[in-house]
Inverse folding.
């Protein structure tokens, strides 16, 4: 099945990039790894009939948030090769916590008998139009609150990042 | 292992990316590295939402949730970067271990 193969490829790209994010000592390389994860996850969205979400992921996340992070890196780096490494104890403790988390969640997920339905029957009516309709009817209040939040964040970020005279 | 893709595959992928994000948050001492870890965690939540939307409800409400998560992630990144710039102006480094004193 070509869809299954595509899922494994995109999931592999996302996972590999996420591992690269964690292991890279240089923060710029971590940002590039994040780009790989975001792209892989966007492809997974396209695969899961979430076309609008995939496009939003590429535009807002890969195009906006990641650029913001890269600008943040450039504005706060002292020299290109300065990396702050965690101490051995910190790294080992964090790895143990992460391994326990992974084992716990994966075991939980595989134990629970999830009620699944055939996606082919479900996603017939799932179009961009239906999502837009839902956003402006059922989810109108969160939608408006989100727009106010964005305004507040814009003013707050501009105020915080100003240079002091 | 290489079975037909179902809900569990999405959930397991999400769990792995979540753990990697937590590991990234815990091990990076660069503040922006911690922010990148937060983005990984938010992405894993989105994978869950999309998986449930595809295999359980099929009505797109999971996708709408995910849109809001992406929006909040963008807002959070903008504010975090602004705070880091302030931090950098005051402490002259982006190493979070150096920000250990309170000053008005």
């Amino acid at each position: 099945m070509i869809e299954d193969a595509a899922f494994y490829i995109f999931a592999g790209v996302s996972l590999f990039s996420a591992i690269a994010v964690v292991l890279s000592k240089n923060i710029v390389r971590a940002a590039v790894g994040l780009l790989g994860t975001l792209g892989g996850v966007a492809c997974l969205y396209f695969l899961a009939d979430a076309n609008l979400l995939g496009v939003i992921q590429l535009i807002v996340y890969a195009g906006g948030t990641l650029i913001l992070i890269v600008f943040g890196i450039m504005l706060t780096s002292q020299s290109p090769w300065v990396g702050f490494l965690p101490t051995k104890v910190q790294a080992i403790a964090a790895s143990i916590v992460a391994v326990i988390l992974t084992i716990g969640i994966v075991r939980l997920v595989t134990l629970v008998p999830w009620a699944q339905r055939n996606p082919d029957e479900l996603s017939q009516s799932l179009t961009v139009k239906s999502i837009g309709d839902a956003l402006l009817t059922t989810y109108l209040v969160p939608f408006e609150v989100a727009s106010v939040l964005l305004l507040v964040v814009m003013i707050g970020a501009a105020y915080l990042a100003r240079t002091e005279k | 292992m290489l079975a037909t893709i179902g809900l569990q595959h999405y959930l397991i992928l999400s769990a792995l990316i979540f753990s990697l994000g937590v590991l990234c948050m815990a091990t990076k001492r660069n503040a922006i590295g911690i922010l990148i870890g937060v983005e990984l965690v938010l992405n894993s939540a989105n994978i869950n939402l999309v998986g449930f939307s595809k295999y359980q409800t099929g009505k797109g409400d999971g996708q709408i949730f995910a849109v809001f998560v992406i929006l909040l992630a963008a807002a959070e990144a903008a504010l975090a970067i602004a705070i880091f710039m302030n931090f950098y102006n005051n402490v002259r480094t982006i190493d979070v271990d150096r920000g250990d004193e309170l000053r008005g």
